[in-house]
Design goal:
36% of the residues lie in helices and 19% in strands. The chain has 16 helices and 18 strands. The longest helix is centred in the N-terminal third of the chain and has 33 residues, at 36-68. It is globular, with a radius of gyration of 33 Å. Mean pLDDT is 77; it is low at 27-32, 220-227, 253-299, 478-488 and 613-629.
């Protein structure tokens, strides 16, 4: 009898324990969200949307600015009447030849705006006369408009360039990945896919003002998640009954074999340390018990990180920005005696951390940049993994990216002082030369090429310090992550032709992009040198830009050849490297007495920061382009 009771009790304990184990360790149903593949496709599509809109604005802005400085256009503005403008169109002086759905309007502001020329003349009047960037949505197209001021001798006018940007391929890409929702721009919507019933809507703002992608997230399953209470109850009951049977069976066997005197059983009490309370966690493990799985540290709290959240030993102050691969936060670490250090921390997007190629890409950025030690390159201070999150800790630069300073100056019709612009260019060349000449610990050249030099990747501090940042797509001879043959990365509008078509690149690709940045700084005009956009013009006269001195008469004419040769289609015509390009610039600086100190740069930065709208005033950045981020 006793033996049978023990056996039956053991079976019940095992069965009940198994039921409890299943119930207590069962994973809850996943929270609403996108599958990793869909999340990755959406990140790619968002990046493409933003890139397409940015490039469309750049194309339209260049077109508008080029027309605005045309002497015939200024003559028409000074005449100020429609008949004169029509005669000039007939003679070919105001024939703009719009293509691909482009619309060009030229008007004069004399009391009230008057449109003098509209090509094609069947197109509707936009009604826009104030200089700036505008965007609207028309079905599958974004309608991009750029307005530039025209200054005649006696009157002021405007030129409005309207260009369509086809977004349908990106919408189709989202739908093919199973993503549903809406794309919104300027209050108008375009549906994408078919949203599931009871879907939760998640709005993703884009860099384009007034644009966002509203994604329909799959709703959480109504059942199947959490802890199944019936199984818990049954398992606990079976285990308890089994324990009673085992004890009863053992007592029966002992009575049959022991001495006649009965044995009184005493309850066993587990010994606990003083002031300690036993607690069973949700997975049946006592709280405080070390996990058998090494996690590499406490996981970062869910994104977006709020002020006060901890990233390892750094406390978040605020979010600085976001890009296609990571979010960036301003954070600080506190030490003894009140020591405090500010850093910028780049945290990789969680959905990309499961993508081996993306992780290699992210880690390569830190590994490469960490080998560059130069005052004109943002320093990498640490690289690591906290929980499941990859992070890069960077030097924090209190200032703003050069792109926003140039946009501010352009919008206010202010030119960057020539000496300041040349000084910034030389410092960018210094930083890139350090990158090109960086070596491994054994002295082996790393062969680093930045590949994404643009004004947005140049930081200028309030103290006049210039730093190159964002080696996210830099190329090195021995990096872990290899670019797929024919793969194009970078910013098309600033990209060397050989890079745009996926050919192998060398340091002269960076020379090309620095010269493009220099053209923007010194002329006050944006450029778009996308080979795909300019292919119809051919190679002759590349880069198809007016002479810098024709846009800014006080500019030393030597810079015409220096800048345009550095942007030559044939890389063999360009300077051998950034050091050689800088030598050419320094010769102009010395000849014309255009020296500028860090203080001179700082004064210009301060003057432009004062002109920025309040939302941007006082911005401090540790990344290439803080968010509208």
């Amino acid at each position: 009898m006793g033996r049978a009771a023990v056996a039956l009790g053991a079976i019940l304990i095992v069965g009940g324990g198994a039921a409890l184990g299943y119930a207590l360790t069962r994973k809850p149903a996943p929270a609403p969200g996108l599958a990793p593949e869909a999340a990755s496709a959406m990140a790619s599509a968002i990046a493409k949307l933003e890139g397409d809109l940015r490039d469309a604005h750049a194309r339209a802005a260049v077109r508008a600015q080029t027309i605005a400085v045309n002497q015939y256009v200024k003559t028409a503005i000074d005449a100020g009447d429609v008949e004169t403008a029509k005669d000039m169109v007939v003679r070919g002086e105001l024939k703009f030849d719009p293509q691909g759905g482009e619309v060009i309007e030229l008007g004069v502001i004399d009391g009230k705006p008057l449109v003098l020329v509209r090509q094609p003349d069947t197109a509707p009047i936009s009604g826009l006369t104030t200089p700036g960037s505008y965007a609207d949505l028309d079905g599958d197209r974004a309608v991009i408009r750029e307005v530039a001021a025209v200054k005649g001798k006696s009157k002021t006018g405007f030129v409005t360039v309207t260009q369509p940007q086809d977004l349908k391929p990106t919408f189709d890409q989202l739908a093919a990945a199973g993503i549903a929702g809406t794309f919104e721009l300027a209050g108008k919507q375009r549906a994408i896919g078919s949203a599931p019933a009871n879907a939760q809507l998640d709005a993703r703002p884009l860099a384009e003002p007034g644009a966002k992608l509203v994604v329909a997230m799959p709703a959480k399953a109504a059942s199947g998640g959490g802890m199944p209470l019936p199984i818990v109850g049954a398992g606990a009951g079976a285990a308890t009954l089994g324990l009673i049977l085992v004890i009863a069976g053992m007592m029966t066997r002992k009575r049959a074999t022991a001495a006649p005197s009965p044995i009184q059983l005493q309850p066993t009490v587990e010994s606990l340390p003083p002031d300690t309370t036993r607690f069973t966690g949700p997975h049946g493990v006592a709280a405080g018990t070390p996990s058998p799985v090494a996690s590499g540290g406490a996981a970062i709290p869910p994104h977006d990180l709020a002020p006060g959240a901890m990233i390892g030993r750094w406390e978040v102050i605020r979010r600085l920005g976001s890009g296609g691969m990571a979010d960036v936060y301003l954070a600080h670490s506190k030490g003894e005696a009140g020591f405090e250090k500010l850093v910028a921390i780049k945290v990789m997007h969680p959905h990309l951390a499961r993508n081996e190629r993306a992780v290699e890409h992210f880690l390569d950025e830190a590994r490469l940049a960490a080998r560059i030690h130069h005052p004109n390159v943002v320093a990498i201070q640490d690289l690591g993994k906290i929980g499941t999150d990859y992070v890069i800790v960077m030097e924090f630069v209190e200032g703003v990216d050069l792109e926003r300073l140039l946009i501010s100056a352009r919008n206010g019709n202010r030119l960057v002082p020539v000496e300041v612009g040349l000084a910034i260019l030389c410092k960018v060349c210094d930083g890139l030369t350090a990158a090109h000449q960086a070596t491994a610990t054994d002295g082996t050249p790393l062969g680093i090429i930045h590949r994404d030099v643009k004004s947005a990747n140049v930081l200028v501090s309030r103290q006049g310090i210039v730093k190159v940042v964002d080696f996210g797509i830099a190329k090195a001879a021995n990096q872990t992550h290899k670019t797929v043959a024919g793969e194009t990365k970078g910013t098309p509008s600033m990209m060397a032709p050989e890079q745009r078509v996926g050919e192998a690149v060398d340091v002269r690709a960076d020379v090309y992009s620095v010269a493009a940045v220099g053209y923007e700084i010194l002329t006050g005009h944006g450029v778009n040198l996308d080979l795909a956009a300019l292919a119809h013009l051919g190679v002759e006269n590349w880069p198809h830009l007016p002479l810098p001195s024709s846009l800014r008469p006080n500019l030393p004419t030597e810079l015409d050849e220096i800048l345009l040769t550095a942007m030559a289609f044939d890389r063999e015509r360009r300077p051998a490297d950034c050091a050689a390009f800088e030598t050419q610039l320094e010769a102009v600086i010395k000849k014309h007495g255009l020296t500028a100190s860090d203080k001179d740069i700082a004064r210009w930065v301060d003057s432009e920061l004062r002109q920025l709208v309040p939302a941007f005033e006082g911005v401090s950045s540790g990344i290439s382009k803080p968010v509208t981020p």
